[in-house]
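Checklist before submission:
- one chain only
- standard amino acids only
- sequence pasted in full

Submission:
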Amino acid sequence: MHVSSDGHTSSVAQFPGDAHTMDPAYTVLEPAAGFEYTDSNGHTHTTPGSGLMMHVTKSISPGSEWGTLYTSNSNGTYYRQSLEYVNRDESGLVDFERIRGLEGIALANVVSNAQSAHNGTPKRLQSMVTLDGGARWHYLRVDGATPCSQTAPQSGSCALHLHGYTEVSDPENIYSAKGAIGLVMGVGNVGPHLTHIGQASTYLSTNGGVSWTQVRKGPMWHEFGDHGALLIVADRIHPVSVVEYSLDRGSSWLTLQLPSEAQHVRVDVLTTSPDSTSRKFVLFGQANGRNVIVGLDFSGAQPRACVFNADSTEGDFELFSPQTMDANRCLLGRQVEYYRRKPRAMCSVGEEFRSVRQLAHICECTKYDYECNHNFVRETLSDGSLGKCVLIEGMSAPRTNCTQGTKDYFIIEAAYRKIPQSICRNGLVLDRPTEVWCPGKARSVAIFWSIVLPVVFLTLAYVAYKRWRDQYPYLRLEDIGTAVRPALRNLHAQRPTGLIQQLQPIFTTALSTFSAVAGAARESTLWAVDKAAPYLPHAIQRWSYEHPPRWGAQSLDGRSRHTIRGSNMSRFTYHPLSTNEAAGRVFGSHELQDEYDEVEAGFNHFLDDERDETEQDARVVDRQVLFANAEFSDEEEV
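Returned file contents:
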């Protein structure tokens, strides 16, 4: 099957399961188009449509016809399972109907005994409603007392079940009308399943199918007029001489006598304009063996015209907002309000009136704004809560491949996808895909960065070290913490506010951690180099001697640094100097290099005399080493 959105190009429709197996029949159901609404600034916007809903027949056994309802993504190419065992008849008509004037709301009948129906058992139908474009389905809830003393449990054993599309003679406006916002009427019964129409009654919902109330006993033909301000019913089974009408949404009913030529008429059709904005109706039936057509005019029932004032709530109109089963007014990511006449307002709306949709609020995304992606299905939970989306057995998540485009990775789609009609913003994100490197590319990227990153790190470290040594030639790493801690204490004492107050503990902790880690890493390196110095090149030995660790390491000549530093454990600062600089520091003049060489030679001779027989030969102390913090005593000068 191919799907086209422009009539020129097409794509293959992807359904869960075996792509090479065709089902017996496919029925394209009416798609939900986008709608216009007005925001608080008076600007008009259009919402996206909901893609396609398709009924795929799974059983064509006579008397046991049913199928699965699928919903697509925005362009109709990928389908996911929405509702199983949806009823159809032998001619292909499906028990599915959208609620007119409201977005994302639809009714459907399912076969509750699909398995036993194959053996000749009559189908038992149950009615369900979706409020979010097919993402979730609920049984119909009835307000007030019911024969089974319950209200729509999850099993459907005490819910309202309505006669649907496969049983009507007039397919126009089966349950609702575009002009009657939020009003839904149907014929059915309360119980475990749908029974014969002779045992049914007429029910009305004023909130878009969320809850229902019985308004007339017995099955009735029904129609909406004057934008839902007028309700007309006529007996569906028995001949009638009157029709009934209500001006207050079914709270009270009045009768209208039919003309003498139409007495005891058996009504077959009761209809009006397609948008149900008129107050004129047509009744068609049979009386005394002949066809009868009767025109009904209710223009004089309410002579006063309603006054519409969008800036006042004291007028003849009210704001209606659809809601979910748990009274949440955020539906499909938005809270939309509609103007409709108040039930107690004694006035006529008129055909010229157009209900204006107002976008009251755009909601944050929640789990109810997502449905299962292609090849995923909802888990069924015993408590009726929303289960997770899990892969269908044997299926895999939709993904691209490495040959598509020029990218170096392929994309694996998430288990969820956003409902096409939802316009929610921010909040929960469940449809984020996963990017995976293509085979071979990941290896080359890993090799590249394993080479580049160390080089970049070492280069930056070397540049930073050089700049630090140029700026602080006599400052050791451990002295940084001594200098920084008072500054941090002063910063804390100033009690900053706002963003600085929030960032201060983070900055302080990060700096302290960095200082501790850097100090430990440096001392570990110095200690390791000091231990291995006798076996390393002379340049590294000299560097190790110039940078002693603080952890009691041995010197290059076998003597501990404690011995060389002196018994008072005074800390000396080591810094490499040229011969001129060293002579200048010791004798105050750069011209006395010979005198400095004599001092250095004497010091080396001193070390040679002091070494033990078991120690290694003392190595010549590099003349670049200067005990800058030490002062020569009189004895040393001699």
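Reviewer check: The radius of gyration is 43 Å.
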